[in-house]
Write a structure and sequence with these properties.
about 350 residues, mainly alpha, globular
């Protein structure tokens, strides 16, 4: 018995790195697959409601895809408005920003002892080795990969909604022996992940609104852009909120004079993040959904290393999925409790 346990443990040590290696190598398949799974989970209750009303399956799928398309259309409109907002800025703003940035960089150069010729510009000094044409190729590859993954995600969403990919049956065949256990676990996963995504969406939305209103009140440029940026990056748990506050504070430092107004502005946007992310979000999610800080950081680093930015966005939903599955087996319940900190 001890030899069998040792063998199983050694096999587990070999299998886990292999699984993560395959997830990284086949990211072009797994990223849209998991993205589509989470999107489909959001609309499965609506799909069931439409089926109860005896609507044909194709009609129900078209209705849900129309809703998803409308959401992306509104997002595209916001992005367009923020871009127009930046392009409509007058030259005086960019001249002022360039002047303050130059002064900030020169202060940092004096502090770190960096030598630069007086007549040499910042761009020519720090970016002289960058070839614009060679840097254009990765950008085009990124756009092409994003378009491909978007189409694949839409394809997988249709398969999930139509039932061609039945996640509950996959769990039953792979993880559980009994149908009752797989159904119960799937219902728990669906409920918790839907709750997390909706709470995260609402919290991120009001965080973006708070950033936009703060920029308008303190007359900081590009309020729509900063609100949209705060909304999007807030989906990266913990790290996103810090990045949004730091970047907007640096931008305000360039635009506003270093007075009490600047300090109050930074305090306001920090307060918005603390209120939304550290107070309201845990209240809405509840204690049963708790995942400790160490687990969050480890999962962010792990999935960020495997899948990059998409991994950072999906890190917490994937962690929730793993935690729920681990709770269903007596041998791994201790790991699930360690993840939740309880």
């Amino acid at each position: 018995m001890n030899e069998r346990s040792t063998t199983n443990f050694l096999l587990l040590i070999i299998v886990i790195p292999l699984v993560f290696y395959l997830l990284k190598i086949l990211s072009f398949i797994f990223i849209p697959l998991f993205f589509s799974m989470f999107i489909a989970l959001l609309f499965l209750p609506l799909m069931r409601g439409l089926n109860k009303r005896k609507l044909p399956m194709p009609v129900s799928i078209i209705a849900i895809l129309t809703i998803i398309t409308a959401i992306f259309y509104l997002g595209g409109r916001l992005i367009k408005i923020s871009i127009q907002e930046i392009l409509s800025a007058d030259n005086a703003f960019f001249d002022t920003a360039q002047f303050k940035l130059t002064g900030l960089v020169e202060s940092l150069e004096r502090f770190f002892g960096v030598e630069r010729l007086a007549e040499e510009g910042l761009l020519s000094h720090y970016f002289k080795n960058i070839d614009m044409f060679s840097s254009l190729a990765p950008t085009l590859d990124f756009v092409g990969n994003t378009l491909t993954m978007t189409l694949m995600t839409a394809f997988f969403v249709v398969l999930f909604l139509a039932g061609s990919i039945n996640f509950q049956e996959v769990m039953q065949n792979v993880l559980f022996k009994q149908k009752f256990s797989s159904v119960k676990t799937f219902m728990k996963i669906e409920k918790d992940i839907i709750k997390f995504i909706w709470v995260k969406f609402v919290i991120s939305f009001f965080t973006g609104v708070g950033f936009t209103l703060a920029c308008i009140f303190f007359e900081v440029s590009f309020p729509v852009f900063w609100g949209l940026f705060a909304f999007l990056i807030n989906f990266v748990q913990m790290v996103g909120s810090i990045i949004s506050v730091i970047l907007l504070s640096l931008f305000a430092l360039v635009e506003l004079d270093p007075t009490v107004t600047l300090i109050v502005f930074i305090a306001v946007i920090t307060g918005v993040q603390v209120l939304m992310g550290s107070i309201l979000e845990p209240i809405f999610l509840g204690k049963t959904f708790s995942i400790n800080v160490i687990t969050v950081l480890v999962m962010l680093m792990l999935w960020g290393f495997i899948w990059g930015v998409p991994g950072l966005v999906m890190a917490i939903p994937l962690t929730v999925f793993i935690k729920i599955v681990l709770e269903k087996f007596s041998g791994t319940q201790m790991i699930a409790r360690l993840m939740s900190g309880s």
